[in-house]
TrEMBL record:
Membrane-protein topology: Multi-pass membrane protein
Residues of the STAS domain: 492-614
Parts of the chain that traverse the membrane: 65-93, 145-165, 203-220, 226-245, 257-277, 312-331, 352-373, 379-397, 402-424, 444-470
Single Gene Ontology MF annotation: oxalate transmembrane transporter activity
Keywords, comma-separated and alphabetical: Membrane, Transmembrane, Transmembrane helix
Main localisation: membrane
InterPro entries per UniProt: SLC26A/SulP_dom, SLC26A/SulP_fam, STAS_dom, STAS_dom_sf
Name of the molecule in the record: Solute carrier family 26 member 7
PANTHER family: SULFATE TRANSPORTER
Entry annotated with the keyword Cell division: no
GO cellular component assignments: apical plasma membrane; basolateral plasma membrane; endosome; lateral plasma membrane
Length: 614
């Protein structure tokens, strides 16, 4: 007789033998998305726009790499490495075709807490050239990047562990108001951390709870120590950056190639600093020596891992949340899908592997992703081409950046966060839709600036769940089994020979962030199942129904069979901002299928909400 251990081994062996080649191939394609899109890449149509976008992206990667390494309290050269290695890893494992990963302001700020705590700053001048360490850098600088690389390594391990645990499916808890408030608060922290460099002040590193307020208190107490030359150069840099970037956005449709103002500003200020000898005459702090070439791989110092657990969790959560939001936005914009769980693996490996090459924590950035949109990038080939350009910079151009003023780098950081800071405008939108979502945004932002980004994120998620639970305790269910369909046909117009097909979907449950995605998916299944697709395009004004009466406006009459989807909202007793966003997404999806969408039995409050968002 077979023992229990033998039976177990026999069962395992049978399962291994049952694995087919198709199963292995499907698994590889799922975990290595590059194997899907490279064989079908359209070289003729996509290579030129990807090349142009990649070159423009490289310029921004270089400038942000230098700036965010500076923000992370390590030597700027490590920002160049962080703009090279993670990009390659994400292109292999990531699913976002327009996601530009690399150095990121929020994760850099989080890792700076660990760096400053474990390797306190003796001087902020990077020009000191002690050749006792690797790459010709001082031992002090190598210790600092060792801590930052350890944060990246452990943060990536946490993300990979979340992939193994399939926690990507829990991302529905990260609602748009919470993500918006957290990223805005973190951006405010980053701007605050750069104030001392913009003003040319010498200030000790301040961190911990309420550090935001302590920094400004220190600035006002020592306002007389402001360096006028650095302040004027900072103001000039910010004005030039904002002005040119606004013009780029305004005329980007007319001029396909945007003006690389970050690069031009770096070149101009470096030349001015060199010829005017600003480092010694005006005491302007400069970047200093930047070594050539790529480093040999070396494992991060494992001894410091227990001391950077807090920062590693912050990097893992904040970096993933910000990156996933950009990936989902690009997928929605360009009509493809993104696996939330696969993104955990992609970003986890983009942190783990580059940490062996002295890289700071990485994530996707809003500015770089927006650049790919505006320059017409098609795939991750644009990001890979940017790596080629960055490699040229690392081996040839890097040392020429010696004279780059630090206050200019600080200006680039601040202006680069404009997109996140402009999320303050979302407050009006949340107020119009749901006052409670507005209050969650404000309180999450306050928690973020008072404590940290990861604390604000945790508070926002807990607060959102608690409010949903207590807000409608009498709701029967959040299950969409209550969704019912009714279908009939009737004569559309006297002069139209075809019938107009109408489908009524009745929803008898709240529509909130907990079930919004499921509602969207189920509704699309109903549409696809019945083949509600028309070849005749028509425009319908999305409007609400009051007391069951319809007020739709058909712009173009059609002589082929037309379709209407009516959502009966009589049982929809509550929805939040996520629910409203899903309704609007359903409208856009149906519009692309030439299906008219109308809402019935909407209450007065919901009618006003729809009008405010359309």
């Amino acid at each position: 007789m077979m023992t229990g251990a033998k039976r177990k081994r026999s069962t395992v062996w049978r399962k291994i033998q049952a694995v087919r080649f198709e199963d292995i191939k499907a698994w590889c394609l799922g975990r290595l998305p590059i194997l899907k899109w490279v064989p079908v890449y359209n070289w003729k149509e996509n290579l030129v726009p990807d090349t142009v976008s990649g070159m423009m992206l490289a310029i921004q990667q270089v400038t942000q790499g230098l700036a965010f390494a500076f923000l992370s309290s390590v030597h700027p050269v490590f920002g160049l490495y962080g703009s090279f290695f993670p990009v390659i890893i994400y292109a292999i494992f990531g699913m976002g075709r327009h996601v530009a990963t690399g150095t990121f302001a929020l994760t850099s700020l989080i890792s700076a807490n660990a760096v400053e705590r474990l390797v306190p700053s003796v001087t902020t001048n990077f020009t000191a050239n002690n050749n006792s360490g690797i790459l010709g850098l001082s031992e002090f600088e190598m210790q600092r990047i060792g801590v930052a690389a350890a944060v990246s390594f452990l943060g990536g391990i946490i993300q990979v562990a979340m992939f193994v645990l399939q926690l990507g499916s829990a991302t529905f808890l990260l609602t748009e108001p919470v993500i918006s408030a957290m990223t805005t608060g973190a951006a405010t922290h980053v701007v605050t951390s750069q104030v001392k460099y913009l003003l040319g002040m010498k200030m000790p590193y301040i961190s911990g709870p309420l550090a935001f307020f302590h920094i400004y208190a220190y600035v006002f107490e020592n306002i007389r120590s402001v360096q006028l030359e650095a302040l004027l150069l900072s103001l000039l840099s910010i004005v030039v950056l904002v002005l040119v970037k606004e013009l780029n956005e305004k005329f980007h449709r007319k001029i396909k190639v945007v003006v690389p103002i970050d690069l031009l500003l770096i070149i101009a200020t470096s030349l001015a600093c060199y010829y005017a000898d600003m480092e010694y005459v005006y005491r302007i702090e400069v970047v200093g020596n930047i070594p050539k070439g790529l480093p040999s791989p070396k494992a991060p110092p494992m001894s410091v891992l227990p001391e950077v657990v807090t920062e590693a969790f912050g990097v893992a959560l904040v970096g993933y949340v910000a990156s996933l939001a950009l990936a989902q936005a690009s997928a929605k914009k360009f009509k493809y899908t993104v696996d939330d769980n696969q993104e955990f693996l992609a970003h986890g490996l983009s942190n783990v592997i580059p940490s062996f090459f002295f890289c700071i924590p990485s994530a996707a950035a809003m500015g770089r992703t927006a650049l790919l949109y505006s320059t017409g990038a098609k795939t991750q080939v644009a990001c890979l081409i940017s790596c080629v350009v960055i490699l040229v910079v690392i081996y040839t151009i890097g040392p020429l950046l010696y004279w780059l003023p630090m206050c200019v780098l600080a200006s680039i950081i601040v202006v680069g966060l404009k997109g996140m800071l402009m999320q303050f405008r979302d407050l009006k939108k949340y107020w119009n839709v749901d006052k409670i979502d507005w209050s969650i945004w404000v309180s999450t932002y306050v928690f973020t600036i008072c404590f940290a980004a990861n604390v604000g994120l945790l508070y926002g998620v807990v607060c959102t769940i608690a409010i949903v639970i207590f807000r409608f305790p009498r709701a029967k269910t959040l299950n969409l089994k209550n969704m019912k369909e009714v279908e009939y046909k009737y004569k559309a117009e006297d002069n139209c020979e075809s019938l107009k097909q109408v489908k009524i979907v009745s929803v008898n449950s709240p529509l909130v962030f907990l079930n919004a995605r499921k509602f969207h998916a189920d509704l699309l299944k109903i549409i696809q199942k019945d083949g509600m697709n028309s070849q005749c395009e028509q425009n319908t004004l999305l409007c609400s129904f009051s007391n069951g009466s319809c007020h739709g406006e058909l712009v173009q009459p059609c002589h082929s069979e037309r379709h209407i989807l009516i959502l009966d909202c009589s049982g929809l007793n509550f929805f939040d901002y996520t629910g409203v966003s899903v309704l609007l997404q359903i409208y856009m999806d149906c519009k692309n299928r030439y299906i008219d969408v109308l809402l019935a039995h909407c209450k007065g409050k919901y009618q006003l909400t729809v009008k405010n968002l359309t």
